[in-house]
Structures are given as C-alpha cells and as structure tokens.
Specification:
Elements lengths: L4 H5 L15 H9 L13 H11 L6 E5 L2 E5 L17 E7 L4 H13 L2 E3 L2 E3 L3 E5 L5 H14 L3 E5 L2 H10 L6 E5 L4 H11 L2 E5 L3 H13 L5 E4 L5 H17 L10 E2 L8 H11 L6 E4 L4 H14 L12 E5 L8 E5 L2 H14 L3 E6 L6 H6 L5 H11 L9 E4 L7 H8 L4 E4 L7 H7 L1
Parallel strand pairs: 3-6, 3-12, 6-7, 7-8, 8-9, 9-10, 11-12, 14-15, 14-16, 16-17
Antiparallel strand pairs: 1-2, 4-5, 13-15
C-alpha cells in the first residue's frame, strides 16, 4: 500500500463514531491499509478526501469483479511479485470455452461438467467459475441462444467472445451480471470502448506486446473504462511466461499504470491436446494469470489445477485448516471407535485417507488447534487431554456411541491420563500408532 495505517489515520475525522464497523478510527485506518475494508465504509469523509484515499490505497494491480452476488469472481488486487513476500489474494478465475458451432451434445456436456465438477477441500469448494461463450458461426440468433442456455443452466460469470456486432446486443441486454467483453484491439478499439462504457461490462484489451497493451489500456482508462483485463495474446508458453512476468514486474516495480490490471490467458491456443493444455495452465497459474480459459473441463485435468490454485492463493503465513467437528468414515455405527487429530489440513487429509483405506468404520474428531500439527499443537498447549475432552463433550458424540473407545495419536500418548480424567470411566482411551500409515492395521486389530 502507498500509505501506512498511521498516514491514513491523519485523514480521518478521529471521532471514533464506530459507523464504519470498527471501534476506533485508528482500527479502521489499519484495516484500510491492509486492504481489508473499503474507503467508502467511513461515511464522514469529504468526497475530495475519499478520492485521495482511494487513489493512495489502491493496489497497483486493480481488482476487477465479474459475475454477480451468487458467483462473484474477483481477480487482480495483487501487491507483490512473490507469494512469500506477503500473499496472493484473488485466485485465478477458471473458465471453459463453449462455441456456438459446437454440436448440442458437446455444449450440453460442457455445461453439465461445469455444474458438477466441484470438490470440497479444506473447507473450500473448488470449481470453475466462468464460461467463455464464443461466436464462431456469425449467426446472431445462434449466439444469443447459446448465451441464453449458459445463463439459464449455470451460475457462470460470462466472457463474451466475438465480433462487436455479435456481442453488442448481448452486452446491452445483459445487465444482471458483469461480463467480460473480449477483446478490444487496435482495429476495433473505439467501438469496444464505447460498448463497455454503455453496457457497464469489463473490457479485455488485446495487444501484441506489453508496450502496446500499456498504451491501449491507458487510452481506455482515460476514456472512463475502469475494469480492464489485459490479453497479451502470446503465441507459445515461453512467450506467455515472459509477457506475464514483464507485465506484473512493470506494474509493481515500475508503476506502469496501463499494465496495472489482471490478465487473461488461453492455454488451448498453445496446446495440441487437453493434457498439454493442462500442463501449460499449471505453468501459467503461478505466473500470473488472472483468468484462464480452458477448451474443456475434465475431472482428471481440472482437479489438479484447482488444487494447485488453492495452494498458491492461500496465505503462506497461515496454516490451512479443516473445520472442527466429527467426521464419519466407512458408515460407522454405535460400536465404532473415535479417533482424534488436529485441524491442520495436511494432517487431516493423511489421517482420513488412511481411515478410508482401512475399510473399517470409524469416526474422526478434529480439534481446532488453529491449524497446527499434532506435535506442534501439543507443544503450544493447544492439544492436550483437557482440550480434547472438552471438545468431545461439546460435540456430544458420546450420545451416538455404545462402545465409547477414543484413540489419541501415538506421538502424544502423554495426554492419555489427562483425557481419561476429563472424560470419565465410561470412555476407554487407547493410544494409536505414531505414523498414519499404520492406522489401517491398528483399526483392524480393534
């Protein structure tokens, strides 16, 4: 951020009125400096000061929001070149391409996969968020029909691809959600800028080089277009990487205003098949695609990309967490044992996978240790017999169990006595294996 919290505080009324939702003006200033709140939350600022603060606190990469409240896709808003410096905030938006010259079966298949290829991981839903609807036939009625089908059958944010004659009627009549108009270039620039201004949609700008993109984007911004996506149109992956890194570096390190926007990449244009396309997409997500358009959605291709994206766009200084609670595996019943672990996501996934692999019915109690692993949380005093026992009582899992057997991780066998004291003699406390790989054999021995 250009201003620190203390610098922002000097602009504020200092009345501590709490109208912004924070207890003090200083707290509001600190959150504004961290990008966690908008300037407009303070209703007592003059328009001049509000404008000055908006400019001073805006990230060097503008945040562009597409879609609607049901499926809002935010891209951009980044402030660093490298994730370890701070964090990357707005994850790469993933889109599937659907063209109006494709057979109905292919179109219906892509729509079905868009709706159903969704995954739960660490308390997050992983999915594609956008559909790029492309005009290939030159038939306005066919293109309109395809857009209507996509908007009726999905909650996708839209990318409208085609000539200005094809997308203009759609853009002007489509006001319930912010779409991306793709793309303005040197030959149609004025017409596309006018369409974006009149319709209120975001505008993709296509250029042959970062220099051309910089000039065109500055021109569009001076014409009143705020929401811009940059399309470098690179011919191969090496050029794509070079362009992405150049754009990000010039925007952040050299304050090139025309390049301070998210980018869009089309991996299928550089690939010969879906597998190669997937590899190219995986290469470009970290460096630094804002939007990614895939030719198709297939589970074996999409899931690894979504998982990679999730890992990149999380705060490296905060461990990933699983929600506290009791999770059933392999249809457990009242005679099934209850295993205990922490809510560090990696620990949870390893332990839960081994329980599933055992084919033995069991429950897994996940204790909120603020995302710390078993030994680390025990050393920090966040995973002991009293804490585990209190959670078991709070969740009332004993009401579901006749044979009350609870298993603690072998690495923290020391908490067994304290847990027995906390739960009482109606529970049998056992010490499990030290390594998760031994859980299947241990469960079978029970």
């Amino acid at each position: 951020m250009a201003l620190s919290g203390i610098q922002i505080y000097k602009y504020l009324p200092k009345t501590n009125c709490k109208d912004c939702g924070f207890p003090t003006c200083l707290a509001f200033a600190m959150n504004l400096a961290a990008g966690k709140v908008d300037v407009s939350a303070c209703i007592h600022l003059t328009e001049q000061i509000k404008t000055e603060l908006e400019v001073a606190t805006a990230p060097p990469i503008r945040t562009v929001v597409l879609g609607n409240k049901d499926n809002q896709v935010s891209v951009g808003g980044e402030t660093v070149l490298f994730r370890h410096e701070k964090t990357f905030f707005n994850k790469t938006g993933v889109a599937v391409l659907i063209a109006d010259n494709e057979p109905d079966e292919a179109i219906d298949g892509k729509i079905e996969r868009f709706n159903h290829l969704r995954y739960e991981r660490a308390g997050q839903e992983l999915r594609a968020e956008l559909v790029a609807v492309q005009s290939k036939t030159g038939d306005p009625s066919k293109y309109k029909s395809l857009v209507n089908k996509v908007t009726t059958k999905t909650d996708a944010a839209l990318i409208l691809m085609g000539s200005i004659d094809m997308i203009s009627p759609i853009a002007m009549g489509f006001q319930n959600s912010k779409a991306l108009l793709c793309s303005a270039h040197a030959d149609n620039f004025d017409e596309m800028v006018n369409l974006a201004k009149e319709s209120g949609h975001a505008l993709a700008i296509k250029g042959k080089s970062p220099d051309e993109l910089n000039l065109l984007a500055e021109k569009a911004a001076s014409a009143g277009i705020k929401d811009i996506i940059l399309d470098p149109s690179s011919g191969d992956i090496s050029k794509a990487l070079e362009d992405q890194i150049t754009i990000r570096r010039l925007a952040l390190a050299h304050k090139a205003k025309g390049l301070g926007y998210p980018t869009i990449v089309f991996p299928y244009e550089m690939a010969n098949d879906l597998m190669e396309e997937t590899i190219l997409a995986a290469t470009i997500i970290p460096k630094y695609a804002g939007l990614l358009v895939l030719s198709d959605l297939q589970g074996h291709s999409l899931f690894p990309l979504l998982l990679q994206r999730m890992n990149i766009f999380t705060d490296p200084q905060r461990p990933m967490r699983t929600d506290e609670g009791v999770y059933p595996f392999n249809n457990p019943g009242p005679e099934s044992p209850l295993l205990v672990t922490t809510n560090f996501s990696l620990t949870y996934f390893i332990v839960s996978a081994e329980i599933e692999n055992s084919k033995m019915p069991a429950y897994l109690a996940v204790v909120d240790t603020e995302g710390l692993s078993v030994l680390t949380s025990w050393a920090a005093g966040k995973f002991d017999g009293e804490i585990v026992g209190s959670m078991i009582k709070k969740l009332k899992i004993e009401d579901q169990l006749h044979k009350k057997v609870i298993v603690v991780p072998g690495l923290v066998a020391v908490i067994r006595g304290e847990l027995e004291e906390e739960l009482g003699n109606q529970w049998i406390v056992k010490v499990g294996p030290k390594e998760a790989i031994h859980i299947p054999a241990f469960l079978k021995s029970l």
